[in-house]
Write a structure and sequence with these properties.
Distance between the termini: 75 Å
Number of helices: 2
Largest sheet: 2 strands, antiparallel
Mean pLDDT: 75
Length: 140
């Protein structure tokens, strides 16, 4: 299936089972059984794209499909992709906003942070400040 396929071996393992019998001759010992395992990473001959053929078109059975052949659906596909892009941007912005809020809280002194969280959460609660967890309980 993958004759002359460009890629590389990421691992090669040889294991000899404990119950394997051995061929013993003068000067050599060879097991009768062994297990070999290989991991191969396929690189391909070109960078894949949405319209490129799969596996370098190893067979006539794997013809690429022209995305424009989906008549009547291209507008729907474009709208879905556009929405996915907007959602990804929104998620990124929310993460940035949350990080900036956490950063502002972590910039406070411990006394200020404790006072703020005690008032906000009440007693017997926990909060995180500069990566460590603290209780809102007072020592008295």
């Amino acid at each position: 299936m993958f004759n002359d396929a460009p890629g590389f071996f990421t691992s090669v393992n040889l294991t000899i089972p404990e119950n394997s019998t051995w061929e013993l001759t003068d000067g050599s010992q060879v097991p009768h059984l062994c297990q070999l395992s290989f991991e191969f990473t396929y690189i391909g001959k070109e960078n894949p794209t949405m319209t490129s053929r799969q596996y370098d078109n190893i067979s006539k059975d794997f013809q690429s499909v022209d995305p424009n052949s989906f008549k009547g659906n291209s507008d729907k596909v474009d709208k879905v992709l556009n929405k996915i892009g907007k959602i990804a941007k929104l998620a990124k912005n929310l993460k940035i906003e949350k990080k900036s809020k956490d950063k502002k809280f972590d910039d406070l002194s411990f006394g200020e942070a404790f006072k703020k969280k005690s008032a906000e959460l009440g007693p017997d609660k926990a909060f995180t400040w500069r990566g460590k967890s603290y209780s809102t309980n007072k020592a008295d």
